[in-house]
User: Fold SGNH/GDSL hydrolase family protein from Flavobacterium sufflavum.
Amino acid sequence: MRNHIKLILIFCNILFPIMSLFSQTDPAWDNTSKSNWNDAFKKIEITSSLDGKMQNAFLYASKSKAKKPLIISLHTWSADYTQKDPLTNEILARDWNYIHPDFRGTNNNAEAMASQYVIADIEDAIQYALKNTNSDPEDVHIVGVSGGGLATLAAYMNIKYPVKSFSAWAPISDLESWYWESIGRKQKYAANILKATSKDSVFNAEEARRRSPLLQQFPKDLRKNAKLYIYEGVHDGYTGSVPITHSINMYNRLVGELKYGSVKLEDIMPKAVTDTKLVSEKEIISLVTKQYNPAFDKKDKLFDRNVYLSREFENIKLTIFEGTHEQIPQALGLIPVKNTSNLKYNILCLGDSNAQNKGGWVDQLKNMMPNANIINISKSGRTIGFDNNGKKDLNALANIDDYLNDAQQQIGNKKYDFVIVCLGTNDTKNDFADKQKEVVVNFETLLNKITKHSLIKKSKPKFIYVTPPPMRTKNILDKYKGGNERIEQLIPQFTTIAQSKKFSVIDIYHPLLGILDYYAEDGIHMADEGQQIIAADIIENIQKTKK
Assistant:
């Protein structure tokens, strides 16, 4: 099956003369030293349905009354369930259900490493989480990197539960190939594979192949409605431990079977010469040798990363990006969770650039509430009560009557069900650093004016105040320096005032603190996927207070 690709791997080995002399250090994603967990994540025990053994895991149950997605995050090759997961901050920010199972721990024993016990443990973890959280059973997602990527692919090929999506980052797909690649690089992983698959010191290639997702039976009918995403950094195999061929081969094999009924790469690869849905040997060799694609589409981005190759067929997608052996920090933002609502309210939004910008939280509300009528009177640079950059029209307090009169014209004879206010970021700029007491006074006056306007008396809407999001504290424009600290000091005062005016308050500042830096390139304005967090919180608040 792998004759064509073995030629490429042999060629790759020629490219790594230094690696054959010196062993590589473990990549960062196989780091097992960090194990401190937030108290929100509870250690639990799950009895195996296969052999009765106890499996440990960390579990987070959403605090929401509404159904939320379930994320199964799989640890790396050399780790177990205690390995600190960088996704946890965002899990808390999104308030999604989450489980981090052990699935037989480190990949250095026969029960681990994509065995039948691993598959059973992952399935048991899903069932436990579904029973003990408010998870939507139709919104279950598996994600893993490195050894967790191997387990993700193994789950895709083997588990029975109808998982909605599988995201495999820098995965191993062929344990036999990786054994020899690890031998060549003098890495510990070869010894791990030997220990897990062999009863003596002789490598059991047959057992390694049996555990390899690349060579397993593809359950096409079971995965008809499931999405598989394979992500790989183009430098992996050089600065990481898993050559990019593992990802490409897995993609080609699955697509080849779907399109041509072929399960062997030697039968599939000739078709890739003319079939642009597949990745050809020429493209593979070019990516492996150049670690770059001179003809890449500069508009095709994985957040801030260049994408050098992207292929997609039906529900299977491959992405080779500028990176190494890693899972990017925004991985959860790429998972296709359910995020639409049938709510049909009339909603007025008053905010600043995070609300006005394309892809901002108002756009996300419109996408997530397609049946709602959302009027946006937000403006970039708007303040609560100052002439920002000398522009009087950006002063909400001075112009609120005009804003609301305009909102009345836009709604016509209808009534607003909700009015959402999200202001305060621009009032904390350096220009207004010595006027923060005025900000508080202006805020209270603004809310008073809003609640007494004729539009409000006519509509009698519910009010929502969304706190300003956090700002980056370093590597930010001078005009925003110190702004994050000022926002933090203002939020308790804003909250007290807003609640006294019958506004529901949504605190987005604190949940976003741990993830802002990788969703907001400029430290202020988050990418669409980050703005979705704000929109989701608003929708949940609306659902709680709906008439």
Remarks:
- The chain has 19 helices and 15 strands.
